Known about the structure:
Chain A is an all-alpha fold. Helices cover 69% and strands 0% of the residues of chain A. Chain A has a single domain (10-538), classed as Cytochrome c oxidase-like, subunit I domain (Cytochrome C Oxidase, Chain A), CATH 1.20.210.10. Chain A has helices spanning 10-41, 46-51, 58-90, 97-119, 137-167, 175-190, 192-206, 215-243, 245-248, 256-269, 286-320, 328-331, 338-361, 366-369, 374-403, 410-437, 456-482, 515-538. The longest helix of chain A has 35 residues, at 286-320. Chain A is globular and about 60 Å long. The termini of chain A are far apart. By secondary structure, chain B is an alpha+beta fold. Chain B folds into two domains: 1-41; 55-162, Cupredoxins -  blue copper proteins (Immunoglobulin-like). Chain B has one helix spanning 12-37; strands spanning 65-70, 73-81, 84-86, 89-93, 97-104, 109-113, 119-122, 128-133, 138-143, 156-162. In chain B, the strands form two sheets. In chain B, strands 1, 2, 3, 5 and 8 form a five-stranded mixed β-sheet that branches. Chain B has a five-stranded mixed β-sheet with strand order 4-10-9-6-7, with no helix packed on it. Chains A and B meet through helix 8, helix 10, helix 11 and helix 14 of A and helix 1 and strand 7 of B.
Amino acid sequence: MTANTYQLTAKEKRFIGLHFIFAIASISIGGLFGPFQAMEHAGWDFYTKFLNPIFHSYYEGLTLHGVLNALIWTTFFITGFLTFLMIYGLKRPLRYFWLNQIGWWMMVVGLVTAAIPILLNEASVLYTFYPPMKAHWAFYVGVTLVVVGSWIEGWGFYLTYMKWRKENPKTRTPLIAFMALITMVMWQIATLGAAAELLVDLIPWSLGLRAGLDPQLDRTYFWWTGHPLVYFWLLPAYISWYAFLPRQAGGKLFSDSLARFSFWLFLLLSVPVGFHHQYVDPGVPSGWKMVHSLLTYSVFFPSMITAFTVVASLENAGRANGGKGLLGWIAKLPWNDPSVLAQLLAGILYFFGGIGGIINASYNVNLVIHNTSWVPGHFHLTVSTAVTLTFMGILYWMVPYLTGKKLWCKKCAVIQVWLWFIGMTIFSNAMHVVGLLGAPRRTPLGQAPYIPEEWAGHLFRVGLGGIILLISLYLFVAVMVGSLFTKKLEEEVEPPVAESLLDPQTTPRWLDHWAPWLIGATILLIIAYGPQLIYQIGTAQFTSPGFRVW
Amino acid sequence: MDSKHESMHMDAYERTWIIVSILMLIVFFGAVTVAGLSFGVRVPDPVQRVNPNDLAASGAFAEPGLKEVAPKRYEAYIVAQTWSFNPREITVPVGSIVKFYVTSKDVQHGFKLQNTNVNMQIVPGQVSSLAVKFDKPGEFNFICTEYCGIGHAAMYGKVIVVP
């Protein structure tokens, strides 16, 4: 990769920074409620004792936790990060900056519109908002605006890319811009399901324009989006592991072509897998569940490629730093750099998250853990660690890059990362264990009459993990806020984009053509979803009125 | 490929890794298929549509409860509603095979029969069904595993298996 000569303008940096400010503000509120839930499990119920009547129930808190963390923290961080990858990767400004600004404003308006009914306890429906539980219409409209805003930012990327392609007909798309584009395209295909659910069903229904819904059909729409949503969170973390981490660790990217190939596979395979969240649904035939089970296994494959390439790149770095022997290179990685440390520890817990994911995806094995606390135990290793801790790690170099100021208290950042790792290990392990024993998810277990005494030790560990995570979260927020008030850096931070061991221009050209992959993704979607969608829409019974049950 | 210089660079270790990954996934998939087809570890299939607003007109759900269809063979019709199961308790002799049929009157619920492979999403308008054989006497809680409102945590029932 040639030296990057394009410098982001102050305006562009501010625009990206605004995304991050909203993301960090969201997780600092949303993340507060997670520990309250965890402590409730351990028998320390803050909801009924202290939080009422400002926060009305466990479920209002749980809704805030899910929406602000899983939907807002992620979407705002990711759109900001992708904006950076597009501009810095293509070495040119956004073609229509105003278009991306419109997208951004729409996301902000959406966030506020959705937040108000949640805070008024008019939308305690959790972030999956399954009908026929009915929230205030503003909640659905707000969520829709956030998604459409992110689409508009994506359209801004596509138009920028088309212009760049015209200016550079022979060049391979720079890796980081290429990966950013795939992430966005995958997201736009993935969110068609939620768009159908929100626009055709939930919004008209919540406004009283439709009398009833078919909840099974809406589950199918939702999970069209719900699983690839996971890849929308993960791919930006993978981008950092592939394209930044090797350089941060002192090495090079092991394989440019396999990195690209794995991203194409994610585009192909992320979406037609939603029925693996519906294995225990009554309205989906088991044959189709089996088809999605197989496709889910297939999407595990590009993650395996990622694991190899990332570890190989790290080995390359460790050896470049003087590491010897079979495992000696591991010690030579810069473990004291909070950004690297965050990504390494994220990767380690992601290994266990991946194993759990295979279990969840396994058709009938899923019967053991479906809707148990195993599932939140699992996704706190993936989205809340692999993704979130990586995003924190990215911010540890990116905030100084955007502000031109020193990171405040690097030592605090290192401690923060370790605390997250330790807290999550304790919390997640205990959640997995009680899930296997049969504890339901999304339930204030401290109040449930059927919880046996013997689980108390595990539930204590859930609470303990939550407290450690709370400390870690606010240490992170402190470092972020503190970094706004530090000294100016002498030299500007250079974004640590990794070089590839081979010139990317030798990467096969078929890895830079969109049409075959987009057609392939469409065909797979038609095969995996077409017959069931036609059947479920054709036989739908719109008999469910709305219920306010909280 | 367009030119000699272009190639999908693949390291020998990497190739091995990829082959092992694929084989692993084939083995896993084979295992769940065998468990599904040979050992009968099944997931729910569509059985019946009902009108959640008028369960009285929906056959057996008019009078939920246990029905003996043959010696030691039962069908259990259970209605889930905020925030209880109807019936809350059923009693069967040890060795019975019980096929559960569960539907909802209102919002979505869950039905997980502890320490068995019965775990179902309960969706209004649909009937969820799985069967289980009770080989040992004892009490088995069935609990609601889907958030269904403020009283969700208290929603459960039990199967009593008597010798």
